[in-house]
Amino acid sequence: MAASLSTHVLDTGQGTPARGVKVELFRGAEPVAQASTDDDGRIAQLAAALDPGRYRIVFHPPSPYFTRVELEVELGEGHHHVPLLVSPYACASYRGS
C-alpha cells in the first residue's frame, strides 16, 4: 500500500486560512511535488502513491520571521495530513487526521 499526503496552513496571527502558500515535498534531495494552498489554506492532495519512507515538507509561510519552515517526516502506508499553524513569530505542526 502506498502513502499519500495532504496539508493545510492556518495563519493564527490573522485567524484565517493562509492562501497561496507554496509547499514543496522532497525525498532526499529529489523534488517529489509542489503546490500552493487554496482559498481555504489547504492542499487536498500534495502527493499520492508515495513509497513509504522519509520525506521533507517545506512551507514558505506568510510570516515576517519564518521565511521557510521545513519538517522531516516518516510516512508509512496510508494517508497522512500534516498541517502548519503560523503567526508572525511562532509556528507549530502536528500529525492531523
Topology readout:
Layout: E1 3-11, E2 16-17, E3 22-27, E4 30-36, E5 42-50, E6 53-60, E7 69-75, E8 78-81, E9 84-87, E10 90-93
Parallel strand pairs: 1-8, 1-9
Antiparallel strand pairs: 1-2, 1-5, 3-4, 3-6, 6-7, 9-10
Quick rundown:
This protein has 97 residues and is mainly beta. The protein is built from no helices and 10 strands.
Describe this structure in words.
With 97 residues, the chain is mainly beta. It has one domain: Immunoglobulin-like, CATH 2.60.40. The strands form 2 sheets. Strands 1, 2, 5, 8, 9 and 10 form a 6-stranded mixed β-sheet that branches. A 4-stranded antiparallel β-sheet has the order 4-3-6-7, with no helix packed on it. The mean pLDDT is 95.
Tell me the radius of gyration. 13 Å
CATH superfamily: Transthyretin/hydroxyisourate hydrolase domain
Q: End-to-end span in angstroms? A: 18 Å
What spatial form do the alpha-carbon principal axes imply? globular
Estimate what percentage of residues fall within beta strands: over 45%
N-to-C order of helices and strands: EEEEEEEEEE
Mean pLDDT: 95
Q: Supply the number of structural domains.
A: 1
Would you state the CATH class?
Mainly Beta
Uncertain spans: none
